[in-house]
Design a protein that fits this description.
With 201 residues, the chain is of the alpha/beta class. 34% of the residues lie in helices and 14% in strands. The strands form two sheets. It has a five-stranded parallel β-sheet, with no helix packed on it. It has a two-stranded parallel ribbon with strand order 1-2.
C-alpha cells in the first residue's frame, strides 16, 4: 500500500536496487559473470525509464528530486560495498514486454501472513523461531527467511533444498505443500512451529 502511493520514477529506482541486490548475492550470479564468489566489477543495467537511468548514471539533470537522489545514493552505496559499479542504459519499453508482464503478475494467493500480534502470541506461548520458511520480503515474520524465488532480503531460496535441522523454523505455507512439509520435518528431524488450517480428515 505504501509503494502504491509512490511515483513511478521512485519505483523504478527501487526495482533497480532490488535487482542489483538479488544479482550480487553470493551464489546467485551466473558463472559467466563472476569467477568463484567474486561479484562482477561492472554491471550494465537496462531500464525503460529515462529518469531512473539519469539518476543511476548520476547525470547532472538527475539531481532535482531529493527522494530520487537518496535512492540513487542507496544504490551506489550498496555497489561500493560489493566492489562493483553500474552503468544504466535506456531500453525502449517495446523491448521489455516480457519483463513488464512479469512485474505485473502479482499473486495475492501466495502473499498472505499472520497478523504480527498473532505471530507474537504464538511465539510467546511456544518459542521464538529463528527462520521463517516459505516467506517473501512482503510477508516474513522474522529477519531470517527463505523465499520461493530469488529475493534480495532472503537468507536462502527454496526451503525444500535447505537443512531444516539447524534452527527452529516457522512455517506458514500454502496448504497444498503440507504433506511434503511433514515428510521434510520428519526426515530432517526438525523443530518447527507449523501454522495450518484446522480441517479434520
Amino acid at each position: 500500500m505504501e509503494e502504491a502511493e509512490q511515483h513511478i520514477n521512485c519505483l523504478e529506482l527501487k526495482a533497480a536496487i532490488l535487482a542489483l541486490k538479488a544479482f550480487l548475492k553470493v551464489g546467485l550470479q551466473p558463472p559467466s559473470k563472476c569467477q568463484g564468489n567474486h561479484p562482477p566489477r561492472h554491471i550494465l543495467l537496462e531500464m525503460d525509464n529515462t529518469t531512473a537511468v539519469a539518476y543511476v548514471n548520476m547525470r547532472r539533470e538527475g539531481t532535482q528530486s531529493p527522494s530520487l537522489s537518496l535512492l540513487a545514493l542507496e544504490l551506489w552505496s550498496f555497489l561500493l560495498t560489493k566492489g562493483s559499479w553500474v552503468t544504466a542504459r535506456h531500453l525502449p519499453a517495446v523491448l521489455g514486454v516480457e519483463a513488464d508482464a512479469a512485474s505485473r503478475e502479482f499473486n495475492m494467493r501466495t502473499e498472505w501472513m499472520l497478523r504480527k500480534d498473532v505471530f507474537q502470541d504464538i511465539a510467546h506461548h511456544f518459542y521464538v523461531p529463528k527462520v521463517d520458511l516459505f516467506a517473501s520480503n512482503l510477508n516474513h515474520q522474522l529477519p531470517l527467511y527463505v523465499s520461493r524465488l530469488p529475493d534480495p532480503g532472503a537468507s536462502a531460496v527454496d526451503a525444500f533444498q535447505q537443512d531444516w535441522s539447524q534452527w527452529k523454523r516457522f512455517i506458514h505455507p500454502p496448504v497444498v505443500l503440507l504433506p511434503q512439509i511433514l515428510r521434510k520435518v520428519r526426515s530432517d528431524r526438525a523443530t518447527a512451529l507449523l501454522v495450518a488450517p484446522d480441517w479434520p480428515g
